[in-house]
């Protein structure tokens, strides 16, 4: 079909030089696809190089501790991806003898692998003719064909998959999938694409109807919850501190943090000081409390906005099993806490 031919020609002339495009190794392709979920290529690239250097095979990844995996993932966000990555690596290494499933249907059975990721691995590693459908594909097809289907609806995935399947050349599915995603990432971008240089500017229905910025249509709005975190940074006479592991399901599961006081609003000094003395550290002699950040740090997650304050508490006594500044940095933290430790040069 003309659409596919033009698209692939554009791709071959304009594609980015990305390391996972130079291999059919399903391990590296799987790794890149998991990393690039909810993540820009520029941000994910250094992590890909670090992971493939530290864990050159799925067996190396499987044999690593979860804590080491989370530490290397630190700053990439959506940490459930890292936990699922590790568990899936263990399943492949120990249950499948290190061999990845070689079909879309079997890949779907892996933990953390959905329809998009399974399609990507199946087509890029095994040249299976199965379409990938991500945000880029929704955008390109909805604009080119003027498809007004609400992409927030479950049925939309099936509709766009069928359309992509019709367009896909059966003898070259991998290149087609790469091409349509790359076109959405580089040319048919979400906001204000430059349609004057687009190879489809004489045939794109949305451009002809002046609907480019209206498509794709998505109705569902993400409800954002505001949460208020007060991190309590204990400092003893040796300069050591105390951290805890988040063991409850939810954000930052199995990452480390300072003792946490969560409130329903930004708290003042008197309130936090009373909580520190009465509820958190009544066993210690407190000689000073200081709010470190000046104003609350706002950290945005997909469904939550965190308003974070850091409080340093100096005590007379020695913390049993306290952690010094050097060892502190070896633990996997949420990036907002790690940045605080680094950028504020907290002397512990």
UniProtKB/TrEMBL annotation:
Known EC number: 3.2.2.31
Catalytically driven reaction(s): Hydrolyzes free adenine bases from 7,8-dihydro-8-oxoguanine:adenine mismatched double-stranded DNA, leaving an apurinic site
Cited InterPro entries: A/G_AdeGlyc_MutY, DNA_glycosylase, HhH-GPD_domain, HhH_base_excis_C, HhH_motif, MIG/MutY, MutY_C, NUDIX_hydrolase-like_dom_sf
DNA repair is among the record's keywords: yes
Matches recorded under Pfam families: HHH, HhH-GPD, NUDIX_4
Domain HhH-GPD: from-to ranges: 35-186
Note describing how the cofactor binds: Binds 1 [4Fe-4S] cluster.
Keyword 4Fe-4S applies: yes
Designated name of the protein: Adenine DNA glycosylase
Organism: Flavobacterium hungaricum
